Each structure stands twice: as structure tokens, then as C-alpha cells.
Amino acid sequence: MSFLLPKLSSKKAVDQAIKSTAEKVLVLRFGRDEDPVCLQLDDILSKTSSDLSKMAAIYLVDVDQTPVYTHYFDISYIPSTVFFFNGQHMKVDYGSPDHTKFVGSFKTKQDFIDLIEVIYRGAMRGKLIVQSPIDPKNIPKYDLLYQDI
Amino acid sequence: MSLADELLADLEEAAEEEEGGSYGEEEEEPAIEDVQEETQLDLSGDSVKSIAKLWDSKMFAEIMMKIEEYISKQAKASEDIIHKFIRDKYSKRFPELESLVPNALDYIRTVKELGNSLDKCKNNENLQQILTNATIMVVSVTASTTQGQQLSEEELERLEEACDMALELNASKHRIYEYVESRMSFIAPNLSIIIGASTAAKIMGVAGGLTNLSKMPACNIMLLGAQRKTLSGFSSTSVLPHTGYIYHSDIVQSLPPDLRRKAARLVAAKCTLAARVDSFHESTEGKVGYELKDEIERKFDKWQEPPPVKQVKPLPAPLDGQRKKRGGRRYRKMKERLGLTEIRKQANRMSFGEIEEDAYQEDLGFSLGHLGKSGSGRVRQTQVNEATKARISKTLQRTLQKQSVVYGGKSTIRDRSSGTASSVAFTPLQGLEIVNPQAAEKKVAEANQKYFSSMAEFLKVKGEKSGITST
Asked: Which residues form the Nop domain (chain B) (predicted)?
């Protein structure tokens, strides 16, 4: 499944992607291809990518190859999904401690589609943070790892 | 002595001879028609010789007339007449056979086989060739309980003669068909290009000639040669209904089964056009026929091409279009319904220095505010704005009413009088009287409606006739 989605392997590539996607939600999945949860998430991403092709562009980023961004986004759990719109980082309140990224995999395809739609609508209205439509039961729970505090 | 050979010979001799002969022989044609009419009236005659007259004169006519006219005058009429004759004669012996074997040809053959003795039904090889096993079974069963009587020798002889004649007629009809087939491309080239010579010959034979065929509408031509409903309880599912010669022709049968009916309709329509062209002897090389056939082929191909591949479309971007923002009196009125009303405003207000009931704010937070307070400095109560009232539809109203309906009447709900009260009373006059307790109330309500309601009109009260003079 991960071979169906485009990959970004360097900082430059990620920069390029962020700058070039216009009027579409940019979905960056940070993780490793072999990890089982990543595999699940990749499966959902690849199956919905054609349906969402008008709303979103999905890319896979390997955490080991882009340490800069891994550090910048404070990625401690994988997979983590970060959303952008027109170069602007979109925050989503999932009911979890971290609004800047989505940690873990989605339960169903429909959850992901709904989330993308809400992000899109919010972004078109000029909002920078939106409320997630996913049922809190389906959102993976985790504890924040506080580093250097 | 074969008729076909005779015809061939005649036609091969010379066309000129025919033309020359036809002038002199035109008087023959009305004579032959008369003969035919005569035979139709002459069925009471016991002898088959009356029909034989037609036979002889027919042979004569064949030599003179062209093949088209021959088919139109000959085949159907005489065969039906003979069949009727045989049927009438044999009904004395075996009346039920007619309904069991509706097909004329099969009936005649069966009659020939059985003759006088109906026991021949069982284990008869010849019969098995004529009829199906099921039919034979039914026939033999009916034969054992038939009401008919044995026929005399004379009658039997006549029947035999008639049967033989009918069978020979049939055989000759077949031979004529074969001949016609071979000549079909000369007679009706366009028609035979579309459906083939044999089918064209058949439908022409059934229709009774090319002219008759050209006068038929396409829906009739489609059903030429269709088998009639077979009665006597046989299943008619094996025989497809409404399928004529055209349905069973090669061009239609070459398609998959579900397309065949549609194809039969199309081919019948084009055949009609071709027949009409042929009846005027236009397009003798078959140009129109080839064009029509080409059209038919193209349509067949179109029907059989596979359906287009379904495109999977991505979901559309969730952009709601610009909402219609219109102004004007109408939209202002609509907005009024939804806006902030006076009552709400008063409810939102709180007076200074007074502690509300809900000080700890444990409830929802809606309070009556100024509305609930007396002495707020206003004489009038805030008016209810009709425009902002909540409305429900009639159906919703009805369902709510039905839900809230309380069962019970005068003694249980209204008066709550003693439980022993009832609407049944014993009166000295009638004995038992049942009173509707609501009847009296209805009367009162009616009177009120008439006189005291705010919607009542002016009523004219008739004064007394004695003159009232005003002072």
C-alpha cells in the first residue's frame, strides 16, 4: 500500500511539496514503512487517495530520512499525520492532547474522509484550527512524551 | 404431372406466349372466382366432386396466371374449405378430435389414419409421426369415451377421397413454395435480400401474394405464420407466443435470445418497406434491399456492443457555492420570523439589584427575566407577535392529537360524578332509553355558534305583521 503513495525522502522534497500544493489539503504521514500501525494507516490513505484527489494530496515521509522535520514537529509516536493548507499548518482538535498532528491510524476510511472535508472547509473559511468530526472512541489514545522538560 | 414442372415448362417456353394467352384468358379469372364462391356455398353437397371442380379449373389457371396471383387465389382458401368439409363429416364419428387437434393438416392426416376404427390410436407408428405422444394419449383417451357413431361405407369413401385431396393439395403447396423460393429473387428481390428466399416465400404464401403483403402493416407481417393458441390444456410455454415466420428466420435467430423479439420487430418493419418497394417492382437489382439489410446489421451490432466502462470519479471538493443573498420586502419578512422578538428581549433583561431564582446557575439558564416580574413599570403586557409564532403542519397536529386522546366520557373525566351514573335510563314511556350525554351540549354549542360567536353575521329577525308604528 505504501508503494501506491508518493514518498518524500529529503527536507527539500518536503519543502517543495508544502510550497507547491495549492487549494488542496496536504497530508504528510511521518512514519516508517515497515511499522504495522503505519501499514494500516497507509492502507487507508492509499484507498481514499483517488476519492480525495480533488481535496487532498497525500505524501509519505520517512522519519529517519528527514530528522529536521521530525524534530520540528516533535514527532515521538509513529505514525503521525500533519495537515497543511496553502503552506499553512492546520491544527485539529481531536480531543487528544496534541492538536498539531494526528497520532496513530484511522479506524475507517470514512473517518479520514470526514476529517479531510472538515479541514478543507475550515481552511477555505480562513480558520487555522478546526474541530475533528471523528468519534473520540475511534481516536487512538496516547500520553504526551515531554522531552527536555 | 408435377405442377411445378408444368409451371416451369410454361414459363420457360416464352413470356410472349403468356402475354398473348393472358389477353384471351382474362375472362377465365372471373370464372374461377365464381367457381370458388360456388364451392363455399356448396358445402352441403355430400360429394367432394364440387371441390374437385375447383381443382380442375385451378390447374388450368395455373398455366395461365403468374405465380403471385396463383398463390393469392389458391392455397389458403381451398385448403380451409376441404378441412371444414372433412371436419363436418368426421364430427359424426369423433367430434372431440377437432378441438384436440386444431392444426388443419394434422387433423386431416389423423382422420386418414384412424378412419372408422378409433382403436388404431394405440401403438400406431404412423400416428406418432403426425402427432406428439401427449396428443396421442389424449386422443386415445377421448376416443374410448367418444359419443360418435360408426360411419357408413359411402361416407368413409368420401372422407378418404377428401383427405387424399387435401394431402395432395398440401404437397403441391409445398412444391409451389419450393418453386417460389427459387424464383423469389425474381419476384421480390428486396424482400428476399433481407430475410432470405424461403422465409420470404412463406410470408408471401401466408399473406396471399405480394400485393396483399404490401398492404399489411408491419405488426401484422411480424406475426404471419404464428401458431395459434393450442387449447385442451396443453402447456403453451414451449411455443413462444407471438412469433411468426420472421422470428424463426435465420437472421433473427442468429442473435442471443433476449434480443430476438426486438430484432423481429425491426426486421418486420424493414420487410414491410421492402415488400412495398417490390410490389411496385422498383429497385429490381435489390438496392433498397441491400440498404435496409445494412441498416439492420448496423443496429444489431450496436445492440450487441458491450456497455461502456464506468469511470470512478473522485469526490467533489466540499465548496458550498455563494449563498443567495437577496434583499427586498419578501426576504425582510422572512427574516422577521426568525429574529429577536420583544418577548425574548424582555426575558433577557434582568432588573438591577434583584437576585434571580437561579442564583447558582444550576439550570439551563433560561429565565423569564422581566416578563415574570410584576411591577416592572409597564401597564401593558408585551404583545405576542403573531409572525414569530411557532407553527406546525396539519398532519403533525393530527398525530399529536391522536397521541393525546384520552379515553373516557362524561362520568370519568368531565363531571367526575359518581361511578354509578350511566347514560342508560328507564323511562315510563319507552322503557329503555339510551341518552347521548353530549347531545345536549352540542345543542348549546350550536346556539352559541349562531348567536354569540365573533364571526357570526347579522341576523334578520322577522317582526310581527301587526303594524308597528313608531312614535
From this structure: 187-305
The CA distance from A114 to A110, in Å, is 6
Which residue is it, cell 494507516?
A41
Instruction: Assign B165 to helix, strand or coil.
Output: helix
Does the global pTM surpass 0.80? Answer: no
DSSP for B268-285, written as a single string? HHHHHHHHHHHHTT--TT
Average pLDDT rounded to a whole number, residues B310-332: 86
Phi–psi pair at B229, nearest 5 degrees:
-65, 125
Q: How far apart are CA A84 and CA A68, in angstroms?
A: 17
Q: d(Cα B442, Cα B122) in Å, to the nearest integer? A: 87
> What domains sit in chain A, N to C, each tagged with a CATH number?
2-138 (3.40.30.10)
Find, among A92, A95, A103, A84, the residue nearest to A145 by Cα: A103
Q: In this predicted structure, what is the pLDDT of residue B329?
A: 93
How does the average pLDDT of chain B come out, rounded?
76
Q: CB of B406 within 8 A of CB of B413?
A: yes
DSSP state of B193: H
**Kind and range of the H or E run holding A30:** strand A25-31
Across the interface, which of A51, A120, A124 has its CB nearest the CB of B314? A51
Picking from A91, A103, A95, A98, the residue whose alpha carbon sits closest to that of residue A136 is A95
DSSP output for B436-456:
-HHHHHHHHHHHHHHHTSTT-
Using DSSP, state whether B406 is helix, strand or coil. coil
B310 touching A, CB under 8 A?
no
User: What would the pLDDT profile of B69-106 be if each residue is shown by its tens digit?
Assistant: 555 555 556 777 888 888 888 888 888 888 888 777 88
CB contact at 8 A, B292 and B192: no
Cβ of A53 and B317 within 8 Å?
no
Q: Which of A51, A53, A121 sits opposite B318 (nearest CB)?
A: A121
Q: Which residues of A touch B (CB under 8 A)?
A: 50-55, 113, 117, 120-121, 124
* B314 interfaces chain A, CB cutoff of 8 Å: yes
Using the CB atoms, write b or e for B412-450: b if 16+ within 10 Å. Answer: eeeeeeeeeeeeeeeeeeeeeeeeeeeeeeeeeeeeeee
Residues in chain B closer than 8 A to A55 (CB atoms): 315, 317-318
How far apart are alpha carbons A25 and A143 in whole angstroms? 27
**pLDDT, tens digit, for every residue of B201-225?**
889 888 988 899 999 999 999 999 8
